[in-house]
Predict the 3D structure of the following.
Amino acid sequence: MIRVLLVDDQPLLRGGFRALLDAEDGIEVVAEAANGEECLALAREHLPDIALIDIQMPVMDGIETTRRIAADPALAGVHVVILTNYGFDEYVFNALRAGAAGFLVKDIEPEDLLHSVRVAARGDALLAPSITRKLISRFVSQPLNLATGTGLKELTNREREAVALVAQGLSNDQIADRMVISPVTAKTHVNRAMMKLHARDRAQLVVLAYESGLVTPRNP
C-alpha cells in the first residue's frame, strides 16, 4: 500500500486528488494538510511514502517544507513530489535542489497522476527528458560546486557512468542497456552513488551531477 500525504491550501483541490487516489487499489491518502507546518507534523505522525506538496502555500511554502523533510532523518523514507500550476520554473528548480523527487502540474491527467505516485514511491525521479533539458540549461551559467566535485572522487568509474546516464533522464533499464549490464546491477550502481553523494533520490542525483561538472550541457 502506497501511503500519501496531500498538502495544499485549496480544500477543493485536495478533495479531488483524494477522491482519485483513494479510489485506486494500492494507494491510500493517510492525511491532508493546508500548509508546510501542518505537513511536517503529519509527516512525522504518519510517515507516508509520498508527500504531494503545493509549492506556494501560506505559513510555510513547499520549498522550505521540502528542505525540512530532506533534513530530517526520521523522514528519510518520505518522497516529496511538488505540485505547481506553472510548469517548470524557478520555484520548481529550487524545490528539486532542496530534495524533491520530482514535480507535477496540477492539471495533470488522472492516469498520469496515479502513474507518477507509483513511480515516486519506488524511488524513481519524476523528471521527463524535457525537464532534464531545462535543468541542464539552468546550470549553464552557474559555477561548479567544488564540494560536490570532491565527493565524486569516491565513486567508481561505473558508478560515475551510471550517474551521468541518470542525469540524462534514463531509467535503470535504459542505463542497463547502455552499460551492457543487468537492470539489477544498474540499480546497484545508482543506489551506491546516491549513498556516497548523500542524495535522497534520483532527482537530487541529477542536480548533483550538473553542479559538480560530471556532466555538462555540451557533454551529457
Observations:
- Residues 183-197 form the longest helix (15 residues).
- The CA atoms of residues 70 and 76 lie 7 Å apart.
